[in-house]
């Protein structure tokens, strides 16, 4: 029987940036304990493939933080601290039906596989230009994995890429805000004030841009959402801000990790690098195996909208259910030899894009960017090797490399 104290010690190890480079042994340890129950924190942590899958599909699993008992306590404290702050609507990642369904539908067309496929020639040229400009040693993160998805999402949303130094900084701070510091410790993160300031800055930036696009619409998603807003009562300006905020951060902080994590896995398995360099059709298997083996989003969470039982564990209404996707993807009950990076495995099953009603909307785009970038990177530099030990960003939820230095000659 794992006590709440043991459980919390395991979760603190996971949060510790010192374990960022090698979290998988901790995930194995956590999964071996079964679901971790921390009733005083209104928290249950699931880490097996079966349990995570069940929670993601369960009709009583909610995403709206306002339904969480622990968050309600926290909001009450915050309302005392910041009495005049007006609550902005959350993005649809954190909403339930009917608002989730309505807002997701409004943007889903822009990310449909057919629409995304039409972007391939542009993504091809972007990757070529980035690789042409890269120096020696090449930093896979700074030279390719970061600028590619940023350019694509800016172009789709109609956000000027020249403003990237500013909103890139805000986006990085907000990505860190997704770490479950409050959920796992009951304490606000140290950088809470900085996160609030970055959130307010990004909203103001987007509001300003919406004003400009309203006067001078373009061929972009923000202008399309403005025209929907103006044509009736389907969404509000505050919802356009939240939606663009979500897409901008998702575009900045996830695909970068897919491309860099895949490159690192192949550099550590050089026969995989060489095989992809020789045969670009292997890229999609490399992408899927990376989403399983080293997923860019390591955990998601849900709230029990009613009393639930998952894997024999009672989850009271209002409790947060943290789902360790990265642990589930390495569950030996679901995957043979889970710690082996093997794009040739027979069926690659993973929760890297989530599952159920919140399944990643950007999956076709991320897959396309990943396959093009990795096929071209390996073909251009077939004999690449690690030039230095890679470094990691401090983030747990959106875990990824800060730099990946590669010798190409
Ligand atoms: C490799 C890159 C990516 C990974 C691993 C990833 C992963 C995920 C995951 C795990 C979720 C589910 C969250 C949950 O269930 O709570 C999600 C949702 C989402 N993703 Fe991605 N994502 C990636 C790229 C993108 C991109 C490029 C975009 C768009 C620009 C995007 C947009 C979204 C949106 C809008 C949602 C919310 C869907 C909803 O709530 O209905 N993602 N993503």
TrEMBL record:
Pathway: Steroid metabolism; cholesterol degradation. One of its GO terms (biological process) is lipid catabolic process. GO terms for molecular function: heme binding; iron ion binding; monooxygenase activity; oxidoreductase activity, acting on paired donors, with incorporation or reduction of molecular oxygen. Its cofactor is heme. Pfam families: p450. The keyword Electron transport does not apply. SUPFAM superfamilies: Cytochrome P450 (SSF48264). Keywords: Cholesterol metabolism, Heme, Iron, Lipid degradation, Lipid metabolism, Metal-binding, Monooxygenase, Oxidoreductase, Steroid metabolism, Sterol metabolism. It comes from the Bacteria. The keyword Metal-binding applies. Belongs to the cytochrome P450 family. This is Steroid C26-monooxygenase. It comes from Mycolicibacterium flavescens.
């Amino acid at each position: 029987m794992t006590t709440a104290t043991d459980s919390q010690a395991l979760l603190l190890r996971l949060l510790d940036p010192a374990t960022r480079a090698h979290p998988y042994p901790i995930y194995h340890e956590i999964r071996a304990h079964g679901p971790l129950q921390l009733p005083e924190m209104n928290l249950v942590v699931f880490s097996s493939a079966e349990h995570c899958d069940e929670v993601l599909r369960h009709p009583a699993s909610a995403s709206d933080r306002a339904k969480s008992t622990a968050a309600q306590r926290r909001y009450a404290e915050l309302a005392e601290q910041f009495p005049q702050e007006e609550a902005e609507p959350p993005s649809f990642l954190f909403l339930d039906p009917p608002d989730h369904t309505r807002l997701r539908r409004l943007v889903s067309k822009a990310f449909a596989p057919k629409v995304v496929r039409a972007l391939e020639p542009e993504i091809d040229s972007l990757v070529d230009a980035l690789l042409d400009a890269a120096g020696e040693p090449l930093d896979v993160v700074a030279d390719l994995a970061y600028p590619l998805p940023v350019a694509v999402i800016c172009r789709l949303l109609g956000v000027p890429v020249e403003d990237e130094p500013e909103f890139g900084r805000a986006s990085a701070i907000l990505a860190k805000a997704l770490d479950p510091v409050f959920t796992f410790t009951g304490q606000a993160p140290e950088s809470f004030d900085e996160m609030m300031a970055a959130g307010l800055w990004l909203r103001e930036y987007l509001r300003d841009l919406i004003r400009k696009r309203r006067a001078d619409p373009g061929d972009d998603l923000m202008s399309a959402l403005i025209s929907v807003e103006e044509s009736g009562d389907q969404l509000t300006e505050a919802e356009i801000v939240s939606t663009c905020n979500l897409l901008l951060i998702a575009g900045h902080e996830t695909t970068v990790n897919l491309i860099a994590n895949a490159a690192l896995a192949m550099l550590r398995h050089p026969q995989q690098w060489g095989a992809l360099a020789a045969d670009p059709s292997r890229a999609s298997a490399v992408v899927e195996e990376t989403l399983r083996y080293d997923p860019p989003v390591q955990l998601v969470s849900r709230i029990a909208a009613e009393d639930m039982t998952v894997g024999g564990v009672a989850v009271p209404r209002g409790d947060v259910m943290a789902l360790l996707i990265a642990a589930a993807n390495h569950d030996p009950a679901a995957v043979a030899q889970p710690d082996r990076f093997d794009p040739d495995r027979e069926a690659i099953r993973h929760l890297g894009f989530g599952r159920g009603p919140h399944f990643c909307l950007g999956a076709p785009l991320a897959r396309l960017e990943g396959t093009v970038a990795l096929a071209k990177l390996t073909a251009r530099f077939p004999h690449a090797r690690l030039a230095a030990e890679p470094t990691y960003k401090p983030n747990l939820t959106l875990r990824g490399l800060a730099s990946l230095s590669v010798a190409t000659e």
